TrEMBL record:
Amino acid composition bias (Polar residues), ranges on this chain: 25-37
GO annotation, cellular component aspect: endoplasmic reticulum; plasma membrane
Pfam families linked to this entry: SOAR (PF16533)
Gene Ontology biological-process entries: intracellular calcium ion homeostasis; store-operated calcium entry
Protein name as annotated: STIM1/2 Orai1-activating region domain-containing protein
GO molecular function, one term: calcium channel regulator activity
InterPro entries: SOAR_STIM1/2, STIM1/2
Residues annotated as domain STIM1/2 Orai1-activating region: 80-179
Spans annotated as Disordered: 18-44
Amino acid sequence: MLRDMEKLREAEENLQQLELKMNAKANNSENATTKSDNGNRDEEVQQLKLQLEEEREKNEIMKEQMKRGLEEAELEDHHWSAPIDLQHWLQLTYERERIAFEKKQCAAREQFTMARELCEKLNRQRRSLMGMLASVHGKMDNVDQSISQARTIMEEVTQELREREQRWRNIEILAGCTITTNAGIHTLELMLRPQVNGRPHSTYAPSIGMTGGSQ
């Protein structure tokens, strides 16, 4: 960063020198006594103007690069990540919620499948038993209602899935760690559960609220 600042300082000095040189050439051009001298000086002034524009563009690029570098350095200085034990508790919470959600999702799918299969069965009965049409029609109303309820539950499950994904993505950003990718619920439970003697693992004692040496 110090080297970049030094380069920027040198570039600004070069820019100032070019500006002074161009102004001097412009003044000399105004005071020129012959057309030939005037034309030559005008050409030199134009060249200096082009150089000046190039230097200005370079300076702007360098300033922008330095600005980005400072912003990145500031982000690194302020980067925070959750303590490792808190990360494991968050991962365990995510895994348990994921399993509960998958059970709910599976139940909703089964309910929808059962209602659809019953509807298909009643359709077949209606075609084969025209004399019992009224009875079958009443059952169809019940099946339609079941399908509608199952569809509503599936929509709720889909919305819940989107909410979970967004929520845990935000938690990962705020915690500065990966939560959805972890060692798995069994490994996490083994790491976090109390030992056989009833005392938690020493690594997690502060998190669970228990302290003390081994017996």
